[in-house]
Amino acid sequence: MKNVLKALLMKNQLTNDPTDYKAQVIVKGNMCMSDIVDDLIKDGLTLDKETVINILSLYNQKSANLALSGYNVNNGLVNLRSSIKGSLYQGKWNPNANWVDVSVSQGAELYQAVAQTNVEIIGEKDESLEIRQLSEQINQFTGSSQSKFHTPELLGTRLKSTTEPACGMAFRNWLCKA
């Protein structure tokens, strides 16, 4: 089955080359496990939805437990591998500096699906529209919804929230949860 990803061209803001573009995938929406099971049932799956969701949930839980027990888990779609991050000063675990992470890489099924995917460029994203929308969002941040400690700035096509340096009031708010 061939997959088709639709995308919009965007000028690359990191270079001065006017012919340098990147592509932004047009997202159709979000799908959760329940939505995917509904699609499987539409495609002819004969098991009931609750049974399938229960099996998939147990499978996901078992995969996570195995990955976090030291196994490299290859479930076909993705590979899971756990690791420990941060330096262990004096050979001791420090929960403030160390954490467990799970690396996810594509498995054979996902690799094959990627190989069968075509990209369709359907146009160019208009940057002036993006700037206008961000300007309107900044104007909506006025009044009580804007944090005392964050100030939105419009930087080209990006919205940046700058944090004012900590002061006695910020420390008091954090310490006293006031």
Structural overview:
With 178 residues, this protein is of the alpha+beta class. The chain has a domain at 127-176. 34% of the residues lie in helices and 29% in strands. The protein is built from five helices and eight strands, in the order ββααβββαβαββα. The chain has helices at residues 33-42, 49-67, 108-115, 127-140, 168-176, and strands spanning 3-11, 21-25, 73-74, 78-85, 99-106, 117-124, 150-155, 158-163. The strands form three sheets. A three-stranded mixed sheet has the order 2-1-6. Strands 3-4-5 form a three-stranded antiparallel sheet. Strands 7-8 form a two-stranded antiparallel ribbon. Helix 1 (33-42) crosses helix 2 (49-67). The longest helix is centred in the N-terminal third of the chain and has 19 residues, at 49-67. Residues 128-132 and 141-151 have low confidence and may be disordered.
